[in-house]
Amino acid sequence: MSSQPNHYELSGESGQVSVTYSTTSSTGSRTLVYKAPGIFDNEKVLNFTGDQIIVTEMADTLGSVVSVPIFQTVDTGATMLSVLIPPIILPSETATAPVATYGITAYHRISVVVGGPFDEAQRIDYGVIQLSGTASVLNF
């Protein structure tokens, strides 16, 4: 019997960035763990659960778009990570499937001063990370 995966383990080309996303957990909530290199060789690890994760379903065009804030400031903006989760059908609950997708970082710029440097500029810059890994079913 075929099934849809509920767990995705993805990493970037260089292996420095990784995203682990589950549509459910033992508590019934979505979870996402983002890992990336930090300052001075410390690894940056961010954990998100439930409503901290924004999921937009675009089944006919992109699949699911899963978004989390990976950097926030009070005065200059925020950086959001959105991961494209493609539709996948597994042949069975014990199977895994390869995943090739993208993570998109959106750097949101704001100006706290009226007439400041970002008032008349492009407000969002984008970066793209190629991600690959596996999709599977975790039973809780």
Per DSSP E runs of 2 or more residues, the count of β-strands stands at: 9
Query: How does the helix and strand content classify structurally?
Result: mainly beta
* CATH architectural arrangement: Beta Barrel
The overall pLDDT average reads 88
pLDDT < 50 runs, ≥5 residues = none
Order of strands across the main sheet: 4-3-2-1-9-8-7-6-5
Distance between the termini: 19 Å
Helix-strand pattern, N to C?
Answer: EEEEEEEEE
Rg over CA atoms, rounded to whole Å, is 17 Å
DSSP strand content: over 45%
CATH C-level label: Mainly Beta
The main sheet comes to: 9 strands, antiparallel
Q: Give the % helix.
A: under 10%
* CATH fold naming: Lipocalin
- Choose one word for the global shape: globular
**Number of continuous helical runs:** 0
Number of folding domains?
1
Q: Could you name the key traits of this structure?
A:
140 residues; nine-stranded antiparallel β-sheet; 0% helix; mainly beta; globular; 54% strand; single chain; Lipocalin
Can you describe this structure?
The protein is built from no helices and 9 strands. By secondary structure, the protein is an all-beta fold. The chain has one domain: Lipocalin (Beta Barrel), CATH 2.40.128. Strands 4-3-2-1-9-8-7-6-5 form a 9-stranded antiparallel beta sheet, with no helix packed on it. It is globular and about 60 Å long. The mean pLDDT is 88.
